[in-house]
Structure to design on (1198 residues):
């Protein structure tokens, strides 16, 4: 067929369809090969060349059609290819893979599974495209053909019903009817404004003029948004059709597509499409014999974000500086060359043919009442499945992030989703159940924006994000009006000061004042919305701003002027991690030990049981694997203990002031250690026979041997701390007496009482509470946990109890938890070790009642499923009705929560919470009783070792200040940190390994499971440190 | 319309050949003021940049005040008054790339090349620029060196990438 034959009627379109079908039938298969910008940058050219070579070799060039398409959306796994009609989806392709695909699949009909999509979470291989979760959740209307048809074939476009809508509009409707249909559909502008498109068109239609224009705004400048680019690359004819219909509706015979210069592939595709359309009379004179003339010209931008704003865009089309103008007059009255102009976003225009083709009524079936249809989102940032997706309006944020997006990679937690780019705001984890539609988002103070949806994880600093957007605005501000030009500059300066640690009280209030002024007085949308990210982050993350200003602390570990390194910043005790790693690398173990002990007097303990938040922020984790910071701390301490070298910590001269500490747990001992070194006389009262608190009574021997703990407690005694055991305050000695005998008191009694969970049958014999069980075991009492044991809970105590039960000879040990494993508070390594030892984990199960007569013999459970989101960002477990069943058990261990109690203190005198924890001043750790301080689990409830240590240190400093000192702790001699920075290329290497006891070797005894580092592995592991403490 | 001129082909031309080519382009566009930006794009491809002499030439040919042409050249970030290096490294600092470590990449490049943003290395090989989103967000962090886009760039592997251009 002559490709230039004009198309003038619907039957001409039908003929093109027929011919295309006939031509396609001579092919056995079609290969849809992605040539969108994303895949191009993933080297799809090389893959394509290899494919062509293989097809030639196999003699398949005339029976297999190779079709280059635009973006299908799932950029994360490109280069990709779909094999039709099989529907098989191959991804992450390399040139060498083509041989296999051609030989096995195309010649022998065998799917090459290793090249198919693999589910990130389950590992399941999913060959069929329609079954891939990323696509299943979507509803593709605008992007229906994008990525599924050749991106340069007008015939294929027509075959998929292209230009039928234009024919219908021109032949069956008059312009007014077209506008009515668009109004009825409820289509709202997809560029961000959300203004009803039909209403906008009506405004231009009724303005009389000899010349009108319709413009497609393809200046997609929002960073993070690439919806429009994909549509323009993958299906440019859809835009031509939408513009032609729009031109007809408003009475414009000339259209412009204003494309940003950063999109060369899109420009190329559009040029070819326009040329083809002109050749076949879809553009030009008397289209479809209707008397309607229409043509389109491309205008390339030149790198100005502000040109996305209507009036600036108009100026740019006219060849001028892209500065905005005052509105009114609105473009629909006076636009390009002062003629009525309608400017529509690419996606909006992409919806037009859909609406005309299927009718407004059908269109209204998708979406919500006030936000009909679908929205294309570009989901990027910290998310597993980055890419483009089209979903019905009203879908929740959580569904997009977790179900389609696959959640956050690298085990991080979701923090915020940013919508609307530099004009938008953030949606927090409390808002995961928000439906994504125009009005719901406006209610929350955010906007839909163009569809850029950036997911950010817990390692994000919200102040830094606000600064980032303000930097962008300053770069892109055209400079015409004072509020934007100067106002945003001042805001940026304040934000820069805050992130550098130079923030002042009142800065946040000043930012808000500036923001509101700029919003009210800026000339155009860029300036008016520029303060939004700042206002939004202040609204939801005010604490982060305050922390930067008052405490000079960046919790995200981003603002590097505020800390030594991300690991040190994440450590509640601020141990100089890169410092001690560098010392280990040089073999200076004693110096490493002393450097650690400047901030943390318990390296041997922490090296075994710390939750290591430092490793979560280790930058090496972005390359291969985080450094084993905690284990290296253990190595250092163990080496020092082996050497048995006597040493003495520096102690200041006596002050002749006395400190009383209640509780010889880790918090009390830490506080005592630092105060003794400052010269105070410290006495610690411990109710139990031995000191150590939960470290000796709660944590089992196989995780923390008593011998090690005692050696470390000896180092505390060595600086003069006096520990008195078997003395319970309130019984053996009165609290009031302590208050009179000591100058200051620190209460660190922990949270040692197991919380009852109100379960029916909780008090039956055979039911233990986790902490009590562990205490009894550690005291050497005989404990019966034989037979089938079920542990309820998912934290460290639950797993310790479970593994202790294994060692005590239980036949079967089950752990019952109401959420999934990955939501368990216990460390992943504990869970893995428990499973190795034979513990059976039941996820999504909740105990309802414990049954039995003389003792417990059954636990009734109900199954749970995850749906919707809790306010902490985790999926909410809900009972599945009628799914109860009973499990036979011999013993039950409940390890759900702990609380503290202070029977010795008069409840009226010291402020406590309902949970029994003591209320203290956040900055001084002092209780409502003067001179009485508190910290650790007694204040926090059930928390971890390192925060208890941090509390003890902070309290020591406060108590010194309270008693007339300067609060500066005695940390001993300065230690020089080696500056041995290695600038060579990073060689990837996962962690060097430690030795462990085999599961079989350790299941029936309490020998320490982890055997620590061999010296050479320790040195090698410490050399993997990237020395993020290096400052230029 | 916007024909893309081969940058390398233009490099070989003499000054007068370049001006002649630009003259043709202006005439192709009917000397219309509204086509100024498109003409400037092509002018920059031909000359490598848009110094004052070229601006004067364009202003004369299109019968526009020089201030008008200068105003447009200095407004848009794509247009440069100074010659750029052979390889223009554009580091994307759009939101997605920023979140995925774009800042570290920029710092590392500054260190490796010993230049700041907007500057060119002494041997005129590399120019370092910021681009605010190339649309490769799905593969952040991204940089572009001339026409080639590198995705999921690791700051520790930048030296290897630059070595390819030496």
């Amino acid at each position: 067929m002559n490709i230039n034959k004009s198309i003038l009627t619907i039957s001409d379109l039908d003929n093109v369809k027929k011919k295309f079908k006939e031509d396609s039938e001579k092919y056995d298969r079609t290969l849809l090969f992605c040539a969108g910008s994303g895949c191009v940058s993933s080297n799809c050219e090389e893959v394509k060349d290899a494919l062509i070579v293989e097809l030639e070799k196999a003699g398949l060039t005339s029976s297999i059609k190779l079709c280059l398409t635009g973006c299908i959306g799932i950029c994360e796994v490109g280069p990709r290819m779909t094999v039709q009609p099989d529907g098989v989806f191959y991804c992450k392709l390399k040139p060498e893979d083509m041989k296999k695909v051609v030989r096995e699949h195309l010649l022998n009909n065998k799917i090459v599974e290793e090249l198919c999509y693999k589910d990130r979470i389950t590992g399941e291989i999913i060959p069929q495209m329609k079954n891939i979760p990323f696509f299943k959740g979507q509803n593709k209307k605008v992007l229906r053909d994008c990525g599924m048809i050749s991106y340069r074939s007008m015939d294929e476009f027509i075959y998929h019903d292209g230009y039928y809508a234009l024919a219908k509009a021109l032949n069956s409707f008059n312009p007014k009817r077209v506008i009515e249909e668009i109004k009825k559909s409820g289509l709202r502008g997809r560029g961000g404004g959300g203004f009803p498109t039909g209403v906008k068109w009506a405004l231009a239609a009724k303005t009389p003029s000899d010349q009108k224009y319709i413009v497609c705004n393809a200046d997609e400048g929002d960073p993070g948004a690439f919806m429009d680019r994909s549509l323009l690359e993958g299906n440019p004819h859809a835009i031509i059709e939408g513009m032609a219909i729009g031109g007809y509706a408003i009475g414009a015979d000339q259209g412009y597509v204003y494309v940003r210069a950063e999109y060369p592939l899109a420009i190329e595709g559009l040029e070819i499409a326009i040329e083809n359309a002109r050749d076949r009379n879809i553009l030009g004179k008397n289209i479809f014999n209707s008397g309607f003339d229409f043509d389109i010209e491309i205008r390339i931008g030149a790198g100005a974000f502000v040109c996305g704003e209507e009036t600036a865009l108009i100026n740019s089309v006219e060849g001028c500086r892209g500065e905005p103008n005052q509105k009114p007059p609105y473009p629909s009255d006076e636009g390009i060359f002062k003629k009525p102009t309608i400017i529509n976003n690419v996606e909006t225009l992409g919806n037009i043919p859909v609406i005309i083709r299927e009718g407004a009524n059908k269109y209204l079936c998708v979406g919500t009442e006030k936000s009909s249809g679908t929205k294309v989102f570009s989901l990027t940032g910290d998310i597993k499945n980055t890419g483009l997706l089209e979903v019905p309006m009203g879908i929740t944020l959580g569904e997009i992030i977790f179900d389609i997006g696959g959640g956050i990679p690298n085990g991080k937690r979701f923090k915020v989703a940013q919508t609307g780019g530099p004009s938008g705001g953030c949606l927090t984890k409390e808002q995961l159940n928000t439906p994504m539609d125009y009005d719901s988002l406006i209610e929350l103070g955010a906007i839909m924006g163009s569809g850029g949806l950036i997911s950010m994880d817990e390692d994000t600093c919200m102040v830094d994000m606000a600064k980032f957007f303000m930097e962008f605005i300053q770069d892109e501000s055209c400079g015409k009006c004072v509020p934007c030009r100067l106002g945003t500059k001042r805001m940026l300066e304040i934000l820069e000061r805050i992130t550098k640690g130079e923030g002042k009280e009142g800065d946040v209030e000043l930012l808000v004042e500036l923001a509101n002024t700029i919003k009210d007085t800026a000339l155009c949308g860029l300036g008016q919305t520029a303060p939004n990210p700042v206002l939004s982050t202040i609204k939801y993350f005010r604490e982060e701003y305050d922390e930067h200003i008052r405490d000079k602390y960046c919790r995200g570990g981003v603002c590097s002027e505020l800390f030594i390194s991300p690991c040190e910043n994440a450590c509640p005790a601020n141990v100089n991690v890169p410092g001690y790693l560098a010392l280990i690398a040089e073999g200076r173990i004693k110096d490493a030990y002393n450097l650690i002990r400047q901030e943390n007097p318990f390296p041997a303990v922490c090296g075994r049981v710390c939750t290591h938040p430092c490793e979560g922020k280790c930058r090496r984790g972005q390359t291969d694997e985080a450094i084993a910071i905690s284990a290296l701390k253990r190595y250092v301490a163990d080496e020092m203990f082996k050497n048995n070298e006597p040493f003495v910590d520096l102690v200041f001269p006596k002050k002749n002031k006395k400190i009383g500490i209640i509780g010889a747990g880790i918090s009390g001992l830490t506080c005592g250690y630092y105060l003794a070194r400052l010269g105070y006389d410290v006495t610690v009262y411990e109710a139990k026979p031995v000191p150590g608190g939960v470290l000796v009574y709660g944590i089992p021997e196989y995780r923390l041997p008593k011998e090690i703990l005692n050696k470390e407690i000896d180092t505390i005694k060595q600086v003069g701390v006096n520990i008195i055991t078997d003395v319970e305050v309130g019984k053996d000695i009165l609290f009031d007496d302590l208050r009179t005998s000591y100058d200051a008191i620190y209460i660190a009694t922990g949270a040692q009482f197991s919380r009852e969970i109100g379960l029916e049958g909780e008090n039956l014999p055979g039911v233990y509470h986790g902490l009590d069980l562990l205490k009894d075991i550690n005291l050497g009492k005989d404990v019966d946990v034989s037979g089938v044991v079920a542990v309820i809970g998912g934290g460290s105590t639950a797993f310790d109890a479970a593994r202790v039960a294994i060692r005590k000879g239980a036949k079967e040990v089950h752990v019952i938890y109401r959420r999934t494993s990955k939501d368990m508070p216990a460390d992943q390594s504990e869970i893995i070790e428990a499973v190795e030892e034979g513990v059976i984990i039941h996820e999504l199960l909740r105990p309802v009642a414990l049954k039995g007569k003389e003792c417990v013999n059954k636990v009734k459970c109900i199954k749970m499923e995850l749906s919707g989101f809790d306010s902490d960002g985790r999926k909410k477990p809900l009972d599945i009705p009628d799914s109860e069943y009973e499990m036979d058990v011999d013993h039950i261990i409940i390890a759900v929560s702990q609380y503290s109690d202070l029977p010795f203190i008069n409840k009226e005198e010291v402020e406590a919470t309902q949970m029994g924890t003591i209320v203290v001043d956040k900055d001084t750790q002092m209780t409502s009783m003067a001179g009485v301080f508190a910290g650790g689990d007694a204040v926090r409830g059930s928390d971890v070792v390192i925060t208890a240590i941090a509390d003890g240190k902070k309290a020591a400093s406060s108590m010194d200040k309270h008693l007339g000192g300067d609060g500066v702790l005695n940390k001993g001699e300065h230690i020089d940190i080696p500056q041995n920075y290695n600038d060579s290329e990073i060689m990837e290497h996962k962690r060097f390994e430690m030795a462990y006891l085999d599961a079989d070797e350790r299941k029936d005894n309490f020998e320490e499971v982890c055997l620590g580092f061999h010296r050479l592995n320790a040195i090698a592991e410490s050399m993997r440190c990237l020395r993020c403490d290096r400052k230029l | 319309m916007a024909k893309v001129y081969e940058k390398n082909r233009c490099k070989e031309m003499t000054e007068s050949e370049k001006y002649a080519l630009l003259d043709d382009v202006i005439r192709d566009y009917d000397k219309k003021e509204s086509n100024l930006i498109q003409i400037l794009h092509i002018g920059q491809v031909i000359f490598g940049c848009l110094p004052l002499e070229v601006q004067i030439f364009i202003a004369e040919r299109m019968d526009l005040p020089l201030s008008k042409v200068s105003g447009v050249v200095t407004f848009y970030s794509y247009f440069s008054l100074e010659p750029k290096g052979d390889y223009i490294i554009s580091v994307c600092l759009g939101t997605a790339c920023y979140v995925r470590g774009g800042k570290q990449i920029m710092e590392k490049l500054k260190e490796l090349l010993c230049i700041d943003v907007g500057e060119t290395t002494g041997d005129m090989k590399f120019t370092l620029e910021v681009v605010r989103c190339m649309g490769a967000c799905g593969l952040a962090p991204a940089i572009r060196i001339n026409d080639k886009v590198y995705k999921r760039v690791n700051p520790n592997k930048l030296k290897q990438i630059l070595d390819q251009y030496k």
